[in-house]
Amino acid sequence: MENTIYDPLPVEVAKNLELLKRDLDLKVPSKELDRNLLIATWNIRAFGNLTRKWASEAKDSPRRDLQSIFCIAEILSRFDVIAIQEVKSNLRALRDTLKILGDNWSMILTDTNKTKSGNLERMAYLFDTRRVNLSGLAGEIVIPNEWVDDPEKVIHEQFVRSPYAVSFRSLDKTFILVTVHIIYGDDPKEREKEIHGVARWLSDWASDINAYDQNLIVLGDFNIEARGDFLDKTFLSEGLYVPDDLQKVSRSIFNKDKYYDQIAWFNTAEKKRPKLSLEFLSAGNYDFVETALINRGLQKQELSYMMSDHYPLWVNFKI
User: Fold this and answer.
1) What is the mean pLDDT of residues 104-129?
2) Cα–Cα distance between 122 and 125 in angstroms, integer?
3) How far apart are CA 271 and CA 291, in angstroms?
4) How far apart are CA 36 and CA 13, in angstroms?
């Protein structure tokens, strides 16, 4: 018989959640009514099916279980809106997460990508409707080939996973989030076209939305290998800005030097682009390795399939 999220929490699970909550209290800013806005991105590894046991075993597939989902939901609850990558066609884990978060939470997501290289993934946003609401726009982006002067940078097949843009409103501030999951491939060079296309598209669109006083923020998994490499330079080539707080933090639970995930925006008014009108306060990641599922004695590889191989990144703005 399966367990469900409505069953009483086992004692060990409840103790571990308390440890996680205390750690989050110390490391992630609090939500302050009418004062701040917390935006996050998290590549949650293969976020699809779920084994409905409190503690899955090595023979179970998937390894992600109910305790994992409660830990994931607790982390997500600390933010106002979260872009999630690697949501699969099976929505069992996502739906249970949303139920744990409660009636004040909602989601919007794309259909499943059908290509092999796209890995049958979706793009999703989860958001706390007490603090953030949809403001009307949602769509996937396409890069016109006419924009690209260098034939070698033309994206003949468009994106493996189309970036997903959605507009939100918090109090009197409207902002557009664009979530991205760049192709990985065997060669980092394969990522350059998509990263260049996203940067160029954002620059053009930021100029076009100026009259509406909207803010444009890109976030997600860009599969950038290292700070300052050619992929990072491509990403920043159109003027996108990554706050210093995020320059220093790890993205991967396996390798602290990897620079995969980003949150960025235009920080200066140039090329007819508006400067972001949200006031930046702070940013960081959340390292869950020493707290989430610590009662299970898992190796990092096991933990990555139950939680993720990526850390969530967050940015705190004043509103």
Assistant:
1) 86
2) 10
3) 45
4) 31
- pLDDT per residue over 142-155, tens digit each? 666 655 566 665 55
Q: Which amino acid is at 287?
A: D
Q: For the whole model, what pTM was predicted?
A: 0.93
Sequence-separated contacts (24+) of 59-64 with Cβ below 8 Å: 62/305, 63/302, 63/305, 63/306, 64/93, 64/305, 64/306
**Alpha carbon distance 72, 69 (integer Å):** 5
Rounded distance between C-alpha atoms, residue 201 and residue 238, angstroms: 9
Residue 271 DSSP symbol: T
The secondary structure of the chain in percent helix, strand, coil, rounded to multiples of 5, reads 30, 25, 45
Cβ–Cβ under 8 Å, residues 24 and 286: yes
**Cβ count near 98 (within 10 Å):** 17
Task: Give the DSSP letter of residue 265.
Answer: E
Around 102, how many Cα atoms within 13 Å sit in the side-chain half-sphere? Answer: 7
Least confident of 51-60, 75-84, 145-154: 145-154
